[in-house]
């Protein structure tokens, strides 16, 4: 009985993971619908979206996009600070 419960739990976890992956891919598709200026406003480029699309299906492409946007913001802050020194 315990093995059956574990199997059901593992199946539910797998289905949940697939659902999350599908939702993240939908988000990626919505971002792809933005124009380049809008992407730039949130710190992304069309190339970032292409790279995220190339990631394995069950990976989270939104994590990579968030990392890239964060790196660009940090770089821009550093550049602004260097100009004012």
Automatic annotation (TrEMBL):
Species: Xanthobacter tagetidis
Pfam family, one: YjiS-like
Protein name: DUF1127 domain-containing protein
Domain YjiS-like: from-to ranges: 18-50
Source domain of life: Bacteria
């Amino acid at each position: 009985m315990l093995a059956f419960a574990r199997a059901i739990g593992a199946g539910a976890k797998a289905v949940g993971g697939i659902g999350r992956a599908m939702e993240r891919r939908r988000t990626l598709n919505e971002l792809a619908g933005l124009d380049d200026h809008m992407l730039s406003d949130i710190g992304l480029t069309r190339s970032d979206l292409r790279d995220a699309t190339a990631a394995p299906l069950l990976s989270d492409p939104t994590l990579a996009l968030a990392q890239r946007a964060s790196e660009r913001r940090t770089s821009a802050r550093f550049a602004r600070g260097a100009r004012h020194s």
